[in-house]
């Protein structure tokens, strides 16, 4: 029988071990984990800070005893693999409980060591006791105990990726004064800047002190100082500025490292050694849209890779579809999800592309929980191939983005998306679902049925004195409008055609884009040739400005 050793006992490691057992009742399976726990829910860690997950021990999904009893998997904790001896097919393990080392042989080795939080060494105060990172149950227990035990009120979270944002949110929910400091001009780079403004607003509305375009400079006693010189109160600091793949073990063993600095694997997650697989955050994956290797630290892909590696050991063929990067987040009262490329990454990669930004209702307006959903769809021109999407709202953004992710994986186009038949009932959605709607708008745009300018271009239009028509009703206009915009409501414009110039471009917006779209189409049908819809409309403009 085979002896299979797995390094790392969480997302990738535990999944691989469990799959191997399902394939082979006789295999000897040993799973080695450096930390005190195997199989915990990394993704739920931040929720301990708010008390949504009250007991830190419940973050551990399966313990070594259960692995043994249910799966005959020997899960050893506090055992760090320090060396791979490829010539002998053994590994050297450091046992933290006895401070001794020993060797273990393997027929096949699976590495799933993950990625560790980055801790820049050049920042003053970085080694202080009140500086934390969040990767495992022990980290979150310590952070929570420190904050609660010392009755700390002011906390700085450094880094606005999804871990930083979730940690900041949960600390805020626990009643702390939280500053979130991000070097870039926005949080969560899987969202375009216009969409990220919605997330920013949500954070500020919930009392987070959001600091963008600024980096951490110094960690002092009770404060942090930013690169721009801001002094921010902080008796605790959480670093969430990214993760670094754990490649030392592989590198020391002479396994090939890819161009992104992660472990290089083939189609079947085999490293450059035919008896060693690698999966999860530590490996380099192939981006299906960008056609190049990339890094991706997400749990779903880690589990799929783990299963594929286990299957390959047993001769089961694997289909490696590459990754597109699909993720979601809950932020205070909002949900957000994204998949594939956004406009920025499409631009950087040199795609010929366009995008639409719509904000329809997520459910029928009459229903109690109907809300606006902000939805941005990015597609290739002129092919109409779907490249990515972002959705933010109170409702089921993940359903919408999952449809798009499925479309992308199947090389779907706008035509496919506009025609895909989806479920509908008033409490759950609308007859023309958000994604169908986005595809229709994009299809119109692609086919030149009407023309649009982006929300990001509006400021320049206003500054240049362009003719902007606000198609909302008078009372809506009076409660706030763009400088110099002319109010011609959709309900009146047919009687006021003389007010609409024909010798210059006319840019039309309403609240969400629905009325302006109808006015643009009507004006075109009446012979106006230079009318433009403002994508994103007033809701989007307000958020962006
Ligand atoms: P891990 O799950 O990190 O497991 C690696 C394990 O290997 C570690 O426990 C480590 O101690 C051990 N190890 C490393 N080296 C050795 C060694 N030499 N010997 C023995 N053991 C070793 N992903 C999502 O998709 N959605 C989310 O909402 C989400 N939220 C997250 C929130 C937080 C706070 C964090 C930290 C991560 C989150 N992730 C999320 C990411 C997800 O958890 C990871 O992508 C996933 O866990 C990767 O699996 P892995 O097996 O590669 O690494």
UniProtKB/TrEMBL annotation:
SMART domains assigned: RHOD
One Pfam family in the UniProt entry: Rhodanese
Organism domain of life: Bacteria
GO molecular function annotation: oxidoreductase activity
Swiss-Prot/TrEMBL keywords: FAD, Flavoprotein, Oxidoreductase, Redox-active center
Cofactor(s) of this protein: FAD
SUPFAM superfamilies registered for this protein in UniProt: FAD/NAD(P)-binding domain (SSF51905), FAD/NAD-linked reductases, dimerisation (C-terminal) domain (SSF55424), Rhodanese/Cell cycle control phosphatase (SSF52821)
Domain Rhodanese, first and last residues per copy: 462-545
Classification via PANTHER family: NAD(P)H SULFUR OXIDOREDUCTASE (COA-DEPENDENT) (PTHR43429:SF1), PYRIDINE NUCLEOTIDE-DISULFIDE OXIDOREDUCTASE DOMAIN-CONTAINING (PTHR43429)
Similarity comment: Belongs to the class-III pyridine nucleotide-disulfide oxidoreductase family.
Protein name in the entry: NADPH-dependent 2,4-dienoyl-CoA reductase, sulfur reductase
Organism, as annotated: Terribacillus halophilus
């Amino acid at each position: 029988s085979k002896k299979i050793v797995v390094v790392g006992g969480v997302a990738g490691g535990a999944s691989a071990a469990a799959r191997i057992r399902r394939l082979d009742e006789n295999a000897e399976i040993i799973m080695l984990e450096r930390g005190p726990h195997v199989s915990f829910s990394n993704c739920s860690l931040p929720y301990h800070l708010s008390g949504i997950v009250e007991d830190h021990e419940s973050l551990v999904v399966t313990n070594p005893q259960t692995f043994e009893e249910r799966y005959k998997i020997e899960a050893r904790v506090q055992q760090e693999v320090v060396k791979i001896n490829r010539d002998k097919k053994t590994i050297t393990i450091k046992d933290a409980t006895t401070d001794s080392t020993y060797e273990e042989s393997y027929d096949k080795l699976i590495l799933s060591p993950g990625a560790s939080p980055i801790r820049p060494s050049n920042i003053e105060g970085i080694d202080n006791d009140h500086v934390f990172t969040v990767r495992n149950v022990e980290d979150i227990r310590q952070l929570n105990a420190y904050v609660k035990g010392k009755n700390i009120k002011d906390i700085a979270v450094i880094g606005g990726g999804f871990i930083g944002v979730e940690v900041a949110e949960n600390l805020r929910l626990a009643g702390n004064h939280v500053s979130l400091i991000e070097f870039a001009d926005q949080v969560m780079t899987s969202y375009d800047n216009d969409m990220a403004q919605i997330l920013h607003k949500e954070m500020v509305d919930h009392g987070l002190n959001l600091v963008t375009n600024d980096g951490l400079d110094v960690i002092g006693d009770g404060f942090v100082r930013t690169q721009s010189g801001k002094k921010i109160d902080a008796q605790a600091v959480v670093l969430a500025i990214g993760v670094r793949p754990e490649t030392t073990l592989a590198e020391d063993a002479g396994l090939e490292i890819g161009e992104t600095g992660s472990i290089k694997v083939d189609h079947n997650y085999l490293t450059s050694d035919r008896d060693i697989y690698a999966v999860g955050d530590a490996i380099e994956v192939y981006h299906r849209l960008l056609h190049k290797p990339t890094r991706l630290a997400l749990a779903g892909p880690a589990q799929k890779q783990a299963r594929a590696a286990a299957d390959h050991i047993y001769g089961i063929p694997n289909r490696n579809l590459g990754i597109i990067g699909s993720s979601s987040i809950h932020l205070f009262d909002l949900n957000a999800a994204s998949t594939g490329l956004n406009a920025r990454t499409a631009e950087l990669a040199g795609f010929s592309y366009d995008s639409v930004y719509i904000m329809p209702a997520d459910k029928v307006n009459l229903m109690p929980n109907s809300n606006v959903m902000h939805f941005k769809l990015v597609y290739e021109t002129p092919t109409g191939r779907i490249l990515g999407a972002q959705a933010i709202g109170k409702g089921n953004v993940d359903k919408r983005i999952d449809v798009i992710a499925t479309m992308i994986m199947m090389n779907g186009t706008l035509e496919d998306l506009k025609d895909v038949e989806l479920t509908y009932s008033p409490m759950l959605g609308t007859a023309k679902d958000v994604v169908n709607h986005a595809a229709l708008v994009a299809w119109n745009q692609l086919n030149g049925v009407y023309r649009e300018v982006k929300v990001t271009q509006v400021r320049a239009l206003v500054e240049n004195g362009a003719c902007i028509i606000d198609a909302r009703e008078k009372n809506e206009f009076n409660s706030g409008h763009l400088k110099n915009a002319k109010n011609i409501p959709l309900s009146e414009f047919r009687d006021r055609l003389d007010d609409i110039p024909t010798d210059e471009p006319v840019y039309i917006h309403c609240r969400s884009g629905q009325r302006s779209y109808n006015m643009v189409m009507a004006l075109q049908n009446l012979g106006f040739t230079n009318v433009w819809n403002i994508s994103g409309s007033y809701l989007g403009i307000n958020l962006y400005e």
